[in-house]
Amino acid sequence: MERIWNTSPTLHTKQTAGVDSTGSCAPASVALQDPELQQIRLRYRLATPTFATLCTISKAPDRGQVLQKACLATELRSFPLRRGEKGLFREVNDHLPIPYPIKENLSEPWHKAFLLVQLRLQCIPWPNKLAVEARHQLYGERKRMDSIIETALRCIVDILGSRRDGRGVGVALDVLRSVMAGVWEGSDNELLQIEGIGPQRKERLIEANVKTVKELTRLDFWHIERLLSRNPPFGQQMLHKLAGFPLLTLQVELVQNSSRPQVEPVLDHGCGLRPPSRAAWIARMTLNYENKAPPSWGKNTPWTTVMIEGDDGRLMYFWRGSVKRLTGGKELITSLDPKKREELKVTFACEGIVGTIVRMTHQV
């Protein structure tokens, strides 16, 4: 479903949902009474305790905080940390290079989910600490746990969006993209998204200074075969797969809208919002892709997001839509009220594919 947020003046006139007048998170019971948050809860059909927990996420969280909050979903309590699994997760937590180890005793269901998803995103083989039957059972649970975590992350994106927390939305989208792709955004494991590329082939490509999927798409078929020591038609088959990887393009133009009537300033409600400028601007964005045909990755049609963030981290505009809507160029036009000489950051990316981000900055 296409979704648009725009911080027009009418949105500035009420206290931001889930944030009190000091910029801190309001109590979950207060936040749940907000109509916009009620719509978000119904959209994702999460348990009320889960949604109340997600609403307590702080302003401008980091990746670890976003992922941990998603793993606190009540729905994940149906996957308890079994006694036979504790050795595996202690090994993961204490000895493997995960970015967010747990500092407390491992016993809760969220510990299991939090460590398991990090193990997957780091592309680390499982330690040999489980019996074969227990390993198969955990593999089966992981898919269902990932589905719950993805839903919780989407919900967090919308909660932060309702607060106009642009920095938080960007981080939550980064975590969602990573979980869906199975590798962290910005890591050296991006090439592992490609079917047929494993750890050894990835290392050979990195040694040849080919570190991203985009860089691999620019190679000739014979060059790919030479780097990976494969015979034809391996290179042609690989390029056929890569033809569906989204190569997004973004054009942004800011034009001053001198004809817009002046508006009365409103108070800052504590989440980075400022009184709207008397000199409004119009942003014209053109979203497209370089691919010869509409991109398709993993047998699915990707979805994309574009957001405009102010230099203080406030969300000024957000759009979500299918890549199919970009065919021929998708034009988005919105009015903005930036501060004088403010630098605006525009980010365009696929929702579930790492390595597709396009960023631009414009100073007003």
What is the subunit arrangement here?
single chain
The end-to-end distance, rounded to whole angstroms, is: 32 Å
Give the biggest sheet.
5 strands, antiparallel
Helix content: 25-40%
Protein name: DNA helicase
InterPro entries: Meiotic_Crossover_Helicase (IPR052247), Sec63-dom (IPR004179)
Organism: Purpureocillium takamizusanense
Domain SEC63: 49-364
Structure, described:
36% of the residues lie in helices and 16% in strands. The protein is built from twelve helices and eight strands. It has a five-stranded antiparallel β-sheet with strand order 1-5-4-7-8, covered by helices on one side. A three-stranded antiparallel β-sheet has the order 2-3-6, with no helix packed on it. α11 crosses α12. The radius of gyration is 22 Å and the shape is globular. The relative contact order is 0.13. The model is unreliable at 8-24 and 262-279 (pLDDT under 50).
Features:
single chain; five-stranded antiparallel beta sheet; 12 helices; three-stranded antiparallel beta sheet; alpha+beta; globular; 36% helix; 8 strands; 364 residues
Give a concise summary.
This protein has helices at 28-31, 35-44, 48-54, 63-71, 86-95, 109-121, 132-162, 166-181, 199-207, 213-217, 221-228, 234-242, and strands at 3-6, 248-256, 281-289, 303-309, 315-322, 330-336, 343-350, 358-363. By secondary structure, it is α+β, with helices and mostly antiparallel strands.
